[in-house]
Amino acid sequence: MCSFVACSALSAVEEGRKIHEDAIRTNWETDVFVGAALIDMYAKCSCVESAREVFDKILVRDVVLWNSMIATYAQNGKPDESLDYNLTSSQKMIAENGKRKSVGERI
């Protein structure tokens, strides 16, 4: 995780992609925590599509992942997409169980 933070802080997207490839090879790419770190790294490097690809591969999404994608769009000048994700995440959480889930629960 620290590697992703360092890559995003330095805007070293190519180094981050190499680490992402390692995550794919070791089957960690779809882990919620690794996925959130990847999304954050890509967002800070202005690679919105790469962040979206990571998000789409994770089938069990929690509040942190949804917020990561909402922030990705907001931080990269895409407010409409950010609002759409906010609405979509709320609808999915409510449809699951009739109420919003807490941060610790999975969507």
Model description:
With 107 residues, this protein is mainly alpha-helical. It has one domain. Helices cover 72% and strands 0% of the residues. The chain contains six helices and no strands. α1 runs antiparallel to α2 (13-25). The radius of gyration is 14 Å and the shape is flat. The two termini are 22 Å apart. Mean pLDDT is 78; it is low at 100-104.
Number of domains: 1
Beta-strand percentage range: under 5%
Q: Briefly note the structural class of the backbone.
A: mainly alpha
Number of strands: 0
Work out the radius of gyration: 14 Å
The pLDDT mean sits at 78
Q: Which stretches are low in confidence, meaning pLDDT under 50 for 5 or more residues running?
A: 100-104
What fraction, in percent, of the residue positions are helical? over 70%
Largest sheet: none
Number of helices: 6
Roughly how many Å apart are the termini? 22 Å
- Principal-axes geometry comes out as flat
Secondary-structure element string? HHHHHH
List the helices and strands and how they pair.
Elements: H1 2-10, H2 13-25, H3 32-44, H4 48-57, H5 63-75, H6 79-97
Helix pairs in contact: 1-2, 1-3, 2-3, 3-4, 3-5, 4-5, 5-6
What's the short version?
With 107 residues, the protein is mainly α. The protein is built from six helices and no strands.
